[in-house]
Amino acid sequence: MESGKKLSLLRQRSGLTSCPRCGKSSMVLDMSTGEQVCTNCGFVVKEGLEEVGPEWRNFSKEQGEGDRSRVGSPTSLAMHDMGLSTVIGLEGSDASGNALQSSVKQQFERLRTWDRRSKVHTSADRNLRQAFGELGRLAEKINVGDAVIEKAAYIYRKILEKKLIKGRSITAMITASLYAALRDTETPRTLKDLATVSGVKKNALAQSYRLILKEMDLRMPVRDPAKYVSRIGSKAGTSERTQRRALEILRKAQETGGSAGKDPMGLAAAALYVASVMENEAKTQKDYAQAAGVTEVTIRNRYKTLKESLQM
Fold it and tell me: What is the pTM of this model?
């Protein structure tokens, strides 16, 4: 009976239903050798095939080989327990598949509640749970990847160990940790972006960020203004040709040292304005100032700097 089920499963995965030599509907896929063979005449149709399905990793003796359940999500620093704790499942049936009685379901619901509460019995656990919940919300708002989230969680865990959170806002510190992770991974997001989505004032966020840099002795890479060209250009509706010219202008400015110590957002916006003038594209300083979140005075100052460095 068991071998018949396995044979049926192999036939479903084999692709071909009949043998090209004998015509019998007896094609199977040998997953151990990667060969597609006919069980009637032994003809090998294909060999060296790769298994494209998920890799099942359940080694439980009780469940047996037929069980196809996954064994849980990977560990993550962005979870208060790092994803290592166990949970009481939501299944409404017992091991035999029979439905549980309502009284038993209520009992398991109470057990789940106490199970969740027991995992955050210390103040540090409660702090991490609240902080990482906020981290997930912020990361979704600004659309960043898992690498940035993991880095932010790592930084926050370190400052929690140093007891820098005491007397400070959890939201401000986790947002500052996220900004530090963005700077470290050179992901183009600004302090103003995080202040907008977090509800924390920009000055308070900058103060928390400076505290993290000082106490953690972090050294952040210098932000590249070229990474902001596409973002500002898209908001201002600039053509691809102008954006490419702006990248060339920034590259020449960096070679001559004209971009040293300048705000990357203002410099990128000024380079786009210079490129627009060179490409005869009808864009004003106000358009780029609004797209970059800087003032028109900043655009004019950086415009003069670029003209001097490029000798225009």
Answer: 0.61
